[in-house]
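Intended use. Records like the one below are meant for learning the mapping from a protein sequence to its folded structure. Do not use them to infer anything beyond what is encoded.
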Amino acid sequence: MEPSNTHFMTPAEAFSLAGELALITGGATGIGRAIAHAFILSGARVILVGRRRELLEKAAAELGPQAGWAVHDVAETAHVPALVEDVQARYGDVTILVNNAGHHLKKTIEETDEAEFRHMLDTHVTGAYALTRAFIPAMIERRHGHVLFTASMTSFFGLSRVFAYSTAKSAYLGMVRSLAVDLSPKGIRVNAIAPGFIETEISRKALDSDPARKQRVLSRTPLGRLGSTEDVAWAAVYLCSPAARFVNGVVLPVDGGVLIGF
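Structure written out for the chain above:
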């Protein structure tokens, strides 16, 4: 829809996700769970997707009646058609796809065997490709949709001992730009968020057990603190909302200034 010269959106209109159905991979925990929560507060319904049924059921129950769930391993791309059929039958057409699921591997290239490298690519890159390809036809038919990727600081600069992870997350940049060019004429915007050092249960344990590393992280961050999953979640709402209707093909750092610090 073209912006009107006579109507300036209110904040409630600009940041509303009313009528949207968002599928969020890795949606039961961490950043995915926070995005789901913020989406619901903004009026959307959400579908949490992950491998562990018990976590999905618990998270959906806690998030309330606007949350559903579906079990799926993003690396098992042969099962994507069944997921699409199940989701459409139970919830309807997905209008927002959040490619958030992933896993970490702290190894150098010498330590990373081919199976580990392929699994990293299968989970992040091939998994996101397969889901995006499967869910965009309904978006194209409606001429309305959003695809959002969770990228990483490793999409932009080198971090030691995360070779496979960095490779996978860097691939997201090309996916976002190419998809935005191809899909936006069909009514679908494509963007990404690159979280900085975010406080989660996993990062808290890792940093608390390594004070020197924690100090390095904080000294690298101009704001001098870790981010929260909520910080990432509201950025996700913005990118998928009418407020960002002319924002397309970007990777938005939510990093406290890490990328511009020295």
